[in-house]
Amino acid sequence: MNKQSIQKSAASGMVFGIIVIFFALIGFTVVISGLIQKALGQSLGVGQMPSTSSFLIFLGLLGIWNGWRASRQDKHETLNTKKVLGRSTIAGLVAGVLVMVYALIVGVLDNRGINLRTYLSQLSSESVRFFLFNQTIVVGILIHVFYSTLMAVVGGFLALASERSRERVKSTRESIQKWSQDHWLGKLQGNPYVSYVLMGVVLLLLVLLPRTWGAYWNYVMGTVGIYVLLGLGLNIIVGFSGQLVLGYVAFFAIGAYTFALTTSPEPHNLVWNFWIALGVAVLAAALSGILIGLPIMRLRGDYLAIVTLGFGEIIRILLRSDILKDFTMGPRGVRNIAGPTLFGRSFTTDVDFMYLIILAVLLSIFLARRWQESSIGRAWLAISQDETVAQATGVNTQKYKLLALSLGAAFAGLGGALFASRNQFTGPEDHALMVSINVLVLVIVGGMGSIPGVILGAFTLKGLPEILREVENYRLLVFGALLVVMMIIRPEGLWPARRPKLEVPVGQDNEPVHLPATVGGEK
Amino acid sequence: MKTVLEARQVSKIFGGLVAVNKVDLVVPEGSIASIIGPNGAGKTTLFNCISGFYTPELGDVLFNGRKIQGMLTDKVAAMGIARTYQNIRLFKSMTAVENVMVGFEPHLKHGWITAMIKTPGYVKEQKHIVNEASRLLHYVGLAGLGDNLALNLPYGAQRRLEIARALANQPKLLLLDEPTAGMNPQETDVMKDFIRQIRDDLGITIILIEHDMRVVMNISDQISVLDYGQKIAEGNPKEIQANPRVIEAYLGPGAAALSEKYRREKTHDA
Fold this sequence. Notes:
The structure holds two protein chains of two kinds.
Chain A: H1 3-25, H2 28-39, H3 52-71, H4 81-111, H5 125-131, H6 137-164, H7 166-183, H8 185-189, H9 192-212, H10 214-240, H11 249-263, H12 274-296, H13 301-320, H14 325-328, E1 341-342, E2 345-346, H15 350-373, H16 375-385, H17 387-392, H18 397-423, H19 433-446, H20 451-467, H21 475-489
Antiparallel strand pairs in A: 1-2
Chain B: E1 3-14, E2 17-28, E3 32-36, H1 43-51, E4 58-63, E5 66-67, H2 73-79, E6 81-83, H3 96-103, H4 112-117, H5 120-139, H6 155-168, E7 173-177, H7 185-202, E8 205-209, H8 213-219, E9 222-227, E10 230-235, H9 237-242, H10 244-251, H11 255-269
Parallel strand pairs in B: 3-8, 3-9, 6-7, 7-8
Antiparallel strand pairs in B: 1-2, 1-4, 4-5, 9-10
Helix pairs in contact in B: 3-5, 3-6, 5-6, 10-11
């Protein structure tokens, strides 16, 4: 074994050791062991520590991963037993020793009766003992070292086995693919009715699901829907036209407040019809997009980001302040916002609202797609790629950038109005910076400029945390980890945008094409 | 002959550096005019003054008799001046056809509302520009490559695509900034013929920045030589080749005499 290989193995071990220590420090070890225990079908009471065996499973998985990674250092080399054994043992030992040192420190401190929770809120005496497998310190740390090494070796041999069997896996996979292509998938792909059937199924689900899955899921999915609206809007601004706007929440706030102030009995007693107020809210947001856009048209990139960031904060602070208290109710927010009505009937159950949001989302997807595919979408894309050249090619960049801002803002206005109406309340804290960041992140995670990507991103970032209630405290951790992993694996987003195929055949290849004196033809 | 472009005493100053110094340029309709000069002579800066990237501090730029300095580049493009770039600047993540379609932008009549409803007029216009863009791609020799992303095209194709995009603007004046840079002799010859063909087929006036003297001397009707921002010579290829100031600008002081001596020896031998 050469020096470089040893170094790499040790580095892998360090990384995994640090990960384990980090998870232990934030209490993640306990949570994930609890999840494993539940997944195995065993019950776990609130506040009860999970069993040692589930912790061992978690550690074992990490250890195997460690050994796997350490063994497969170079794609192009062939592994042998000696290499694998050496590398995985080093990686496992290094990780184990790191963890051992940590366990020793916290174990001794805890034994002396020092309350570690004063410093790190997750390190209760219970969790420290849990980390030591409920054994004495010496036994616990020895188990850690031994177990880590053992599992790394297992991982190493798994890597070896997978490499040995790779050829067979590949040929099996290919034959399965070929079989499915020949028998059903190939036939399905060419059939236009498949997409109709799929659309029908999706529509049927959209109609049936809100009725059947209950108020809680309607609430969660309603939030996801509103974020899809926001994402689609910001996608027009950031994804299509390439302007990095960080104060997107301002348009959301303007939509929500316009709707609130025109339908609530307090403070102005304007009780407008729901649909008129909705339209006015969308228009107000679109108009604010133009008004903000005009002075900042010349800014690009990070300057634009900072100015719009400030703008978002200004709106929130204004709404909180005493200056506008008589007009917007200040920090108390606006209450008793009207729900939707249809032909004089109230229309406010959770199911009705879900339908309303679904309708708004479908409409927005339709509009966003139309614009994306049109020459407006092309002009936006050109601006986002090279604004200077786009302008010199004849694109009126000012017009198109303003258009993108105001259309994107209109989507946010719609989202804001629906949000306010559903909650029957809106206050300044609904419109904090975090909303802008969340929407931007979901656009980036989904894939900039991609409409299906935005929808996927909204489900991932707003729906997934709801599904993963168990790890809610660690939402931001998962959030961050997801972002990092995604940026490494899929830097273009979960569902990146594709360009359409447009070229039409002209003449034969060797036949000259006669262009008239004016190249573009009719003018 | 009608004058398409006229520059009068154009000067562009960056801080203390006079990049273009009182340059006059008259380009007649339907001609191919070349601008040559050593590196840093101010050729591209002059181009940028003409196409609206820069506003000259002094002097006028007249296009078909109208002053265009200080106008935004999209207005200049809509008036009929299109250009390409020294370092290729395509919309990289768009397909070749889409790149050309963006070039039709100044002549489109339909906006975001008709695009939203997809009115028949809008659909017809879109079909028309897809067709025209495909035709243009065919014209520049890129037929069948239209659905590739611009960044995936080979170098020579990218240069041609830039020209196709510029032609989509339906220009009366085409500014080509080093169209043969980085090409081998065969490719250069093809490009040279192609430039002449554009002028002959489409009647477009062309101004060319070029370092390859075989190209310049072969296709230019008129050559202007810049050095240190000043125009030091102007004339047809023959006059420029014999001009001692040009030779010194390129090869250093004293070179003109050497070159004269060399020429005489050659004729003497013959």
